[in-house]
Amino acid sequence: MRAVRRRTLPWLFLYLAVVACATFVPRHGWDASLGPVVPHDSFPADCSLCHTGGDWHTLRADFAFDHAKATGVPLAGAHQDAACLACHNDRGPVADFAARGCSGCHADPHLGRLGRACDACHGERTWYPHEVITLHDRTRFPLVGAHAAAACFRCHPGAQVGNFAGAYTACSDCHRADRARATNPDHTALGYSDSCEQCHLPFGWQPARFDHPASFPLTGAHAGRECAACHTTPNSFVGLSPDCASCHLDDYQGTQSPNHTAVGFPTDCTACHTTNAWRPSTWQHTFPIQSGRHAGFACTDCHTNPAQFAVFSCIHCHDHSQAEMAGKHDEVSGYVWASPNCYQCHPDGRQ
Predict the structure, then answer these.
(1) Distance between alpha carbon 54 and the CA centroid of its chain, in Å?
(2) Three-state secondary-structure class, residue 170
(3) First to last CA, the chain
(4) pLDDT at 211
């Protein structure tokens, strides 16, 4: 089968060259290399209707022929400008070739692999295929992103001679060299999969996506970080602690409002903070301060000693005289006027 194909290809290309060259002959002219002139038996006897007086090879400049009216076959696009002898020549009756459709005049460079209907991809104006991306969507490899902009021959080595067979769909078939060149991280040394789509999208190599282990999901500000920001040892992505302090100890020690170290706050940042941002923190107060007069207060408004956040007294802010407080609390059994536990009766700071 291959031997037959090798013998056929030279004749195929020769035929294509002849047909292509014929289209460059001016419509009002004739070249002897095209072969014998089409028989004129049915033509009018008045030669001057088409020919000039002294040259049989040149047609009159004002020669016009209504192909649709005379033959019932309208000529559109490039067919309208083709030389008459490209179709009407000594190969035989043109009706025999027209009955074959496109293949009657145009040899199939695709060797039948893409079907017989040339107009499924080509129009009459130009051979350049139309709606290639849409047509490719019907295959097992739809073209998306950068793939849609790639030249056909990048995946189909024979595309430039009309052969689109033999393309592969596995990433490694086209991108093996890209994987070998990748050093940040080193894909080969780390044994990364050669299925590029696990981390990359067809719109571009960067940014790469990676499903981080469920033990430390990347959310909020963590999601936008470069791998090397946490994995500081090149090409080593194991052995890191999930504890906040392993990355944020400097932030913990440098915080002064309040001083986390002096107060003895836990190094588990998630006790007060989220991964979206350091502020606002989510500290749960001993008694509710989210509403009433206390809402919006800074910690130091009540906790005047930055090193002793566990100690506070209501009377530091609500400093009434003994007589005034006693007079307002006569009905309270066991009242101690200097008690710091006003919030037990006034949980939101109201009267």
Answers:
(1) 65
(2) coil
(3) 101
(4) 82
Q: What is the CA radius of gyration of the chain?
A: 43
Alpha-helix residue ranges (DSSP H) falling in the chain: 2-22, 67-71, 78-81, 94-98, 132-136, 146-149, 171-181, 227-230, 245-254, 260-263, 299-302, 322-328
Tell me the C-alpha distance between 82 and 64, whole Å: 14
Q: Tokens 């499924």 map to which residue?
A: 120
Instruction: Give the bridge partners for 201, in sequence order.
Output: 204
Helices (H), 113-221: 132-136, 146-149, 171-181
Please state the pTM of the whole predicted model. 0.48
The encoded tokens of residue 152 equal: 């056909």
Residue 80 to residues 77, 105, 122, 149, 310, Cα–Cα distance (Å): 6, 15, 16, 32, 94
Please say whether the beta carbons of 188 and 235 come within 8 A: no
The total of other beta-carbon atoms located within 10 Å of residue 86's CB is: 19
182 token code pair: 């990748």
Q: Is 294 buried (19+), middle (13-18) or exposed (0-12) by CB count in 10 A?
A: buried
- Show the CA angle centred on residue 320, arms to residues 327 and 284, nearest 5°: 110
Joined together, the tokens standing for residue 193 give 């999969």
Q: How far apart are CA 97 and CA 91, in angstroms?
A: 9
Smallest CA-to-CA distance from 343 within 309, 305, 316 is with 316
pLDDT at 35: 60
Q: Return averaged pLDDT per consecutive 10 residues of the chain, 351 residues in all.
A: 46 47 52 66 81 78 84 87 78 82 84 82 85 86 90 86 82 91 89 89 85 88 84 84 92 87 87 88 71 72 72 69 69 56 65 54
Q: What angle do CA 197, 202, 204 make, to 5 degrees?
A: 110
The two structure tokens encoding residue 219: 């959310």
186, β-bridge pairs: 183
